[in-house]
Amino acid sequence: MKIISVDGIVVSNTAFKENSKIINIFTKDMGIIGAVSKGCKKMSSKLRLPSERFAYGTFHLYYNENGLSTLIDGDIKNYFINIKSDILKISYLTYICDLAINVYKESLDNQVYNLMEAAILKIEEGMDAKIITNILELQYLEYLGIDLNLDSCVKCGSTKVVTLSLSKGGYVCQNCRTNEILIDEKVLKMLRLYYYVDISKINELNIDKKISDEIDNIINEYYEEYSGIYMKSKKMLKTLES
Ligand SMILES: [Zn+2]
After folding, report:
1. Distance, CA 92 to ligand 1 centroid (Å)?
2. Distance 230 CA to ligand 1 centre (A)
3. What is the CA(149)–ligand 1 centre distance, in A?
4. What mean pLDDT do residues 101-110 have?
């Protein structure tokens, strides 16, 4: 067995034997790694904090390519103190990790981790969790193979778009529009910004609540209809939000 160090976040853990846990680490470069964390339930164990759910940092492992690895040590990079002080933010963190795992399993693309990490760090910095989550959801569509065309009319390519058609898969112009209801131009423009913004570079979110709520509805509807993903954590989040 070789020793490796990986950056990642513990997305789930289960009890194992008397004092141990099996943890699943979503890693930056190596997908999801399962590892035994021996004795981590003891208060004195140095593995206690790195084995907790949402532990985020660098993990040192005896790596087993064909089965469970073994956690040797972990350096926590950020304790997410801000997120963990707020039940709603914890729900967003839970949902984001669940979503990222689902999207990663579909695409096996390491960029899925990077987007998730950027979104979590922005929420920890105090940015609006709902808006950051919507941005992430929109940017994940590409990795789910259900990308929306937000550049021009999805049917004819015209840039004079009047609304968004979820069934057609993007913006549509007046000529190609059939029975879709019109969507405010500001919402259409903002949706495109959500889609292209570099999450790690967001410093400020000044978005009218009416616009962000409408975008939230559009994204929720699209996920429900087309993603094929159903998550308990999303349902939980909706209950808490309402
Ligand atoms: Zn058109």
Report:
1. 37
2. 32
3. 12
4. 96
Domain holding 41, by residue range, is 2-76
CA 169–ligand 1 middle distance (angstroms): 12
Between the CA of 155 and the centroid of ligand 1 the distance, in Å, is 5
Number of domains in the chain: 2
Residue 103 in this model has a pLDDT that exceeds 90: yes
Residue 208 C-alpha from the chain's centroid:
23
Instruction: Mark whether 70 and 150 lie in a shared domain.
Output: no
142, 88: one domain? yes
Q: What is the pLDDT of residue 231?
A: 87
162, 164, 168, 174, 192 from 158: Cα distances, Å: 10, 13, 15, 9, 16
pTM of the model: 0.95
Q: How far apart are CA 89 and CA 126, in angstroms?
A: 10
**What average pLDDT does this structure show over 147-158?**
97
Whether 65 and 88 map to the same domain: the answer is no
Q: How many other C-beta atoms can be found within 10 angstroms of the C-beta atom of residue 47?
A: 24
- β pairing state of 69-76 and 31-37: parallel
pLDDT at 238: 87
